[in-house]
Amino acid sequence: MVLAAIGQICSSASLSHNLAQCQKLVQKAVAAGAKALFLPEASDYIASSPAESVELCQDVSESPFVQGLQEAAQENSLPINVGIHEPTNPPSKRIRNTLIWIDHKGNIAHRYQKLHLFDLDLRPTGPRLKESDSTEPGNEIVEPYSTPFGRVGSLICFDLRFPEPALRLRRLGADVLLYPSAFTVPTGKLHWEILLRCRAIETQCWVIASAQCGKHNGRRVSYGDTIVITPNGRIAGRLEHVENVEDEKEQAREPDILTVDIDLEAVKQVRHSIPLQRRTDVYREV
Question: Where is the CN hydrolase domain (predicted)?
């Protein structure tokens, strides 16, 4: 078993503030003896508008947020998985929503770009969020990479609603699936836990879902409920979530971590006990 630290924060539009929050979690993870820290989607910033999001976006070579985490990873010999924003290549009026793995030497060793963008309209009772207004979708499922926790497959937030990428990563050898997120409160209450458990059960993988939590600005609140699911669909641990949007105060929540022992024997056991032999002869393989 290997101990993982899974972080929950409430990012704002200030990269320096968000870096300080994440640095606190690095120290908590180190103190707990964790072998890696997993941080949420958009840990570098959550803006109040698509225009502000594009304005705040920086290349990793220039981002004080990313550079600060690279230094923290190197100084503490602690790998860090974190969701950030990056410019498109070639540059455009949109950005990329990515997940990077910073290894224990501070190098960016893996990168995944979010495939499915969050276009939501719950008006008049809920929010309207259209990620595609400012974000370029990714175009590939990236092969799982090796870590102390086995082979890890990267996905982000809205990807959770689609089983196909998770199944593909399982076939590519994933032992663990990541879903760093910034779920809205209405959709979080309805779908967050049940979708995470479904992805774990159908792939027989550990699922690690670090989450944004709380009121980021006057327009945006994230559900929270950072959670880890075992390969047989049980909840191994979780942090708190937003109960009532009206009670939330902007940037009032303190960053926190959940620590869970990731046991790869559990992956072997459930796959041996309930082998999932797909009938690819009668349906098209995803």
Answer: 2-264
CB crowding 106-124: b at 16 or more within 10 Å, else e? bebebbbbbbbbbeeeeee
Does residue 75 lie in a domain region? yes
Q: How many domains does the chain have?
A: 1
**Does residue 213 fall inside a structural domain?**
yes
Q: Annotated catalytic sites, by residue? A: 41, 114, 157
pLDDT tens readout for residues 154-165 = 999 999 999 999
Tokens 């502000």, located at residue: 52
Give 236-242 contacts, CB < 8 A, sequence gap 24+: 236/260, 237/6, 239/6, 239/8, 239/211, 239/213, 240/213, 241/188, 241/211, 241/213, 242/185, 242/188, 242/213, 242/214
Q: Which CATH number is 228's domain given?
A: 3.60.110.10
pTM above 0.70, yes or no: yes
pLDDT band at 130 (very low <50, low <70, confident <90, very high): confident
**What contacts 285, CB < 8 A, 6 or more positions away?**
278
174 closest CA partner among 140, 208, 204? 204
Give the C-alpha separation, 180 to 98, whole Å: 10
Residues 9, 26 contacting (CB under 8 angstroms)? no
Domain containing 265 equals 2-273
CA–centroid distance for 24 within its chain: 18
Q: Which amino acid is located at 133 in the chain?
A: D
Cα 42 to chain centroid distance, Å, stands at 8
The reply to whether 32 falls in a domain is yes
Q: In the beta sheet, which residues pair with residue 95? A: 87, 135
